[in-house]
Amino acid sequence: MCGFYLNSSLVLKTYGRDVEFRPNFQTQSSVTVKVSKMEEMPLCPEHPPNLTGPFIVEEKNVSIKDIMSVNSHLQEGGKGKPENCKARQKIAIIIPFRNREPHLSIWLYYMLPFLQKQQADFGIYVLEQIENTTFNRAKLMNVGYSEAIKDDDYNCFIFSDVDIIPMDDRNLYRCSNNPKHMANSLDKFNFKLPYETIFGGIVAFTKEQFIKINGFSNRFWGWGGEDDELYNRVIAAGMRIERLDPQIAKSKAILHKRDPGNEKTGRSFHLINQAAIFMHTDGLNSLKYDVIKSHRHKLYTKFTVNVGSSEKN
Ligand code: UDH
Ligand code: MN
């Protein structure tokens, strides 16, 4: 037992500091006292108190070792939570990935301190697709969701490209009453929407919202279309999308060449307008994949997966 009675209240030594706690009832059971203490932790404020607004995002060479040294208090697997309050949401960040180590380092360099400043309770999941298969961003998102819910009791899922980084810490990485488009103010598009229904880059869904649309389509191979299909699922499910004020949502999209294995084929584009029909049978409920390797790094949890290839689907 880590507490003792003092002046009829209880002082608990937790997280290296004293917490005074006045039980409502008399008990000698240390288990009951500890559980009550956890319940006693206040909810975090809606607006995290220490935000500072805009900051500059630079494309720099950062080593994972350096990022680890400033994030030593994270739990294995890239998990963090506020020390002094209970977060309102438990957030899994899902990142589709292949051969983008320098981008992942920059993302982690900025995002780990950012999420902690926002008092987020979070876990980072990197979904790596194996070599020599056409990239399937949307299917990796579904895999990320499926693995994350097995790992922890998340209720908010932020699906993010590895190369987009917010430039203002008031851009809260949280879920909303409706699915949220978060990459609505990118430097590469002059901080404007290229078209009104764009829903790519970064999106946030509560668990209920994501289940309601049966996740992403698994049938978009190569670059493009899966995000527009996702938008149509949201509308077909009777929801709408939300976006933050573009001033606050300003983000940097790292410029790069098209990756090999992620060419625009356009072969699935005809599916975009059939979302309302296929969303019932193509998505989380038809997802098949094999985990080839899983790895808990200090800064993230990585699953290397075989999601198959377009020929078989
Ligand atoms: N991704 C990878 N590896 C790949 C392909 C994609 O990690 O080989 C992931 C990554 O998270 C990336 C996301 O999938 O951020 C989306 O892919 P993308 O970055 O290729 O998409 P974007 O819309 O592509 O940025 C633009 C194509 C580049 C055209 C260059 C013309 N000037
Ligand atoms: Mn990109």
Features:
Spore Coat Polysaccharide Biosynthesis Protein SpsA, Chain A, 21% strand, globular, alpha+beta, binds 6-aminohexyl-uridine-C1,5'-diphosphate, 313 residues, 8-stranded mixed β-sheet
Describe this structure in words.
The chain is α+β, with helices and mostly antiparallel strands and 313 residues long. It has 2 domains: 3-35, no CATH class; 64-312, Spore Coat Polysaccharide Biosynthesis Protein SpsA, Chain A (Alpha-Beta Complex), CATH 3.90.550. It contains 7 helices and 13 strands. Strands 4, 5, 6, 7, 9, 10, 12 and 13 form an 8-stranded mixed β-sheet that branches. A 3-stranded antiparallel β-sheet has the order 1-2-3, with no helix packed on it. The protein has a two-stranded antiparallel ribbon with strand order 8-11. It starts with a strand and ends in a 7-residue tail after the last strand. The model is unreliable at 1-33 (pLDDT under 50). Manganese (II) ion (MN) binds at residues 161, 163, 256.
| Fourth-level CATH superfamily of the largest domain | Spore Coat Polysaccharide Biosynthesis Protein SpsA, Chain A
Present as ligands are: 6-aminohexyl-uridine-C1,5'-diphosphate, manganese (II) ion
Radius of gyration computed on alpha carbons? 21 Å
CATH class annotation of the largest domain: Alpha Beta
Oligomer: single chain
Question: Structural class from helices and strands?
Answer: alpha+beta
User: What's the number of structural domains?
Assistant: 2
